[in-house]
Amino acid sequence: MPHVMTPGVARPASGTDGRLGFGVPGYAHPLLAPLEWAELARPGMSLHWAVLNVAQGPGARPDPYCREAVDRLRAAGRRVLGSLELRRGCRPFGELVSDAHRFLDWYGVDGFYLARCPCEPAYLRETRRTATTLRALCGGGLLVFGHGRHPYPGYAECADQLVTFAGGWPDYRWSQAAEWTAELPPERFCHLVHGVSRTHLDEALRIARWQGAGTVWFTDRTAVGGANPWEGLPGYWDEIVSRLGPGVSE
Question: What distance separates the 2 farthest-apart alpha carbons in the chain?
Fold first, then answer.
């Protein structure tokens, strides 16, 4: 079943291949997923960033296993982002700043992933305030907004990258890029897709490139029964690593 393209919205694949790489939305704890964390330091892997989510944030106290995993990745030149839960704009500003300080003090993260970031214009001003504060705290580190869908265009002015799709393969297969995204380069967008079988991997990569996403995470794991599809490696891990090839990790 082919992917439907909308004239004037999708970008051609030309020029995006060299920028396409992985964004890892968050593995299980390093004690439960040691292979997954070790694989992120694989030489030549096209890893743009990986998210550390200790316990819906930095946790209540420093975790030595998480610190060890982060140190190993940073020694390999990989960027690790602390996960901050925005609750679609309902998280108090003070709580966010407190969690950000813990991530920086305990794990030395390179920036932040703003999970469940709001999409509506009404929350833009407060989100901009949050982003400005976080940049000041981490010395201009990377900020990724985890919208999960296309937000109001003004959010692109606050973040380094927007997650404009996060969901299952059936929805992704028929998704369309918002028209305003065509004005921005691929490195500004990320797609996170679960339930992508090996037979559909090529199609998924074509969709990402066509829609102008520079960062992706595809997995054959699913959310059936409430499972977290992001907690482990896809079954075709070695294959997709070789498909994407070496990329920018600094």
Answer: 51
Closest CA relative to residue 38, chosen from 83, 5, 76: 76
Q: Which residue's entry shows tokens 């000041």? A: 136
The least confident of 8-12, 81-85, 105-109, 153-157 is: 8-12
| pLDDT at res. 27 | 85
Domain of 56 in residue numbering reads as: 22-244
CA–CA separation, 85 and 181 (whole Å): 25
146/167 Cα distance (integer angstroms) = 12
Instruction: Report the CATH number at residue 138.
Output: 3.20.20.80
Asked if residue 47 is part of any domain, the answer here is yes
Write down the number of H helices and E strands in the chain: 7, 8
Is 144 part of any domain?
A: yes
CA–CA distance, 65 with 177 (Å, rounded to integer): 39
Q: Determine the Cα–Cα distance for residues 122 and 24; give it in Å rounded to an integer.
A: 29
Q: What's the confidence (pLDDT) of residue 146?
A: 97
> Is the residue at 13 inside a domain?
no
Q: How many separate domains does the chain show?
A: 1
